[in-house]
């Protein structure tokens, strides 16, 4: 009888689940992460699998961490955690397959081999997570709130918000700032050299509290002048800067002349040059992109 | 004039400068200040032409006293002119930086008054950012040709990277198109900065000030004058070796000025040529190719249809096929379709297990190109016996021509021919 393991969607939860699988010799057909938000291409649940809930336990997770670090290395452990952040459908089974081979002990060098058939896909996934993190270093856009705080909203594909904190702490050590992950409804708040995690129930928090101002407009117009008309290359633009990020980048989502508009939320979703507020260019482009993907 | 209009005019005037990288400098955030350098550089956005924007790239002023044929800011052009005050520019940079729009400042300028005068203004901005505002972000300063060495040295203390643009890849053409410039006046600041940087490099003390931590770069225009690709690559290889340049940029000529010395205004920018030159540049920087391996006097131009790595492989059939289990790292790098990452993965992985085609596929090796050049049991045998002349069309079309016969073409042959074809009946109804 195969089981669908339910766990609390954290990496520790996943490790505890793996620990239980080994301890109780469970026959697993899949994992179900209990998330409060929806993930793209979620694994369809197996109709015949019996749900089995595993409680998260720090202790067993730490034991498994030590075991992985001993059998392979700390780098591999970090890599697995990075992969796990991708929230890709079936990533848990990929990691489990790797761990099974690792702990089977058939090949003493398995932990060091970066080109085993289980490792290569994990490396590629971790690479794309890190790639999005690197992109996000540049694509977080802060708006200034009236009280002097800088707030930004992001909507990354992978769960990378806490990988960004170190970078921004180093960059703005004296400021007060917050970054909010709109999709996962949580954020980081930094003040007086401390970071706090906060939950943000309202996805329109940023646009309501820190509407675009004169500097945002200057940035937008500067951005527009930077393009050389003779060299326009929309395909290259979309490859470098995927459409799914445009919504939170003022230079792509803001219309050219919106001084007359009142209300920040309409300005965010405004259609450039058109009177009708809906449908926005971004929404159209998003719909097109998702249709092509299917 | 409003600040926004100034920004638009001076940003517009600076956009033809290609360099916009923010890499190579690792800086911690200064005490009581903000900003840090990220050693691999960060792109903040991409403009509609697909070029990365990571620095606030502006001119300090566009009121130029020179009259270079290819330049949009030349004296004889009738365009709106503007000049920042240092305070405006500093406030703008800091506020943009706080919002994470940019990674730092790229400051260039048209020559106002004398080169020294211009250089002083640029240094003033950089100095104030660093010393008064404790700004730790990236600063790229243009070295103005003709500025005194004292000023160049001072610029190097505050900037992360400095650049002098060579613009036209041959001295004769440069003097023809830009009467006030020549190679000597451009090489002088380059060499000076390169030498100072070398001096600072030997002093490895923790407390010694940094001098141009991200080095120098330069840029040349492609397609405005009649140089060959070989000349361009030779020149840029020289820059990498002698001046220790970090980057040489190529800029496909965009016709902006009507001038009888230049290509006509309707010419399209040579984007493909520029792309191939960058590919060749990558081969020199990351794939350990020499410039004279990529091109030589007999083949002075890059192939527009195939990338330079494939072209090299086709010219050297004696080096292939490569056995991935035993070949050197340098040789694996030279196989078309295998990049730096895959080559490293192959070299570190083959100690533990054999590298087979399915591994390569998962690593992201482009087998479409690589399969003709590697030795593997699973590569079909007929692919191994191909001559370069036979591989070339295969690489161009992407798939080998199938020998399979068309089902319907061969039908009449297979069927017994009808003894006598019935007379054709007119399909049209009579009348």
What can you tell me about this protein's structure?
The complex is a heterodimer of chains A (294) and B (431). About 9% of the residues of chain A have low confidence. In chain A, helix 1 crosses helix 2, helix 2 crosses helix 3 and helix 3 crosses helix 5. Helices cover 45% and strands 14% of the residues of chain A. Helix content of chain B is 39%, strand content 8%. About 4% of the residues of chain B have low confidence.
Notable traits:
heterodimer, A: 294 residues, alpha/beta, 3 domains, 5-stranded mixed β-sheet, 3-stranded parallel β-sheet, 12 helices, 8 strands, B: 431 residues, TIM Barrel, 2 domains, 6-stranded parallel β-sheet, two-stranded antiparallel ribbon, 39% helix, 8% strand, globular
Architecture of the largest domain in chain B in CATH? Alpha-Beta Barrel
Global shape of chain B:
globular
Number of domains of chain A: 3
Task: For the largest sheet of chain A, list the strands in their spatial order.
Answer: 4-5-6-7-8
In the CATH scheme, the class of the largest domain in chain B would be Alpha Beta
Profile the largest sheet of chain A: 5 strands, mixed
Beta-strand content bin of chain A? 5-15%
Number of strands of chain B: 8
The total of beta strands of chain A comes to 8
Report mean pLDDT of chain B, rounded to a whole number.
87
Would you spell out the secondary-structure blueprint of this structure?
The complex is a heterodimer of chains A (about 290) and B (about 425).
Chain A lengths: L2 E5 L3 H14 L3 E6 L16 E4 L4 H14 L2 H12 L5 H14 L14 H21 L2 E3 L5 E5 L6 H11 L5 E5 L4 E6 L2 E6 L5 H5 L4 H13 L7 H7 L9 H4 L10 H5 L12 H13 L1
Parallel strand pairs in A: 1-2, 1-3, 5-6
Antiparallel strand pairs in A: 4-5, 6-7, 7-8
Helix pairs in contact in A: 1-2, 2-3, 3-5
Chain B lengths: L2 H12 L30 E2 L5 E2 L2 E4 L26 H13 L5 E5 L6 H18 L5 E5 L6 H10 L2 E3 L7 H7 L5 H20 L13 E7 L6 H14 L4 E6 L18 H16 L4 H4 L13 H8 L13 H5 L6 H10 L7 H7 L3 H4 L10 H4 L3 H10 L13 H4 L17
Parallel strand pairs in B: 3-4, 4-5, 5-6, 6-7, 7-8
Antiparallel strand pairs in B: 1-2
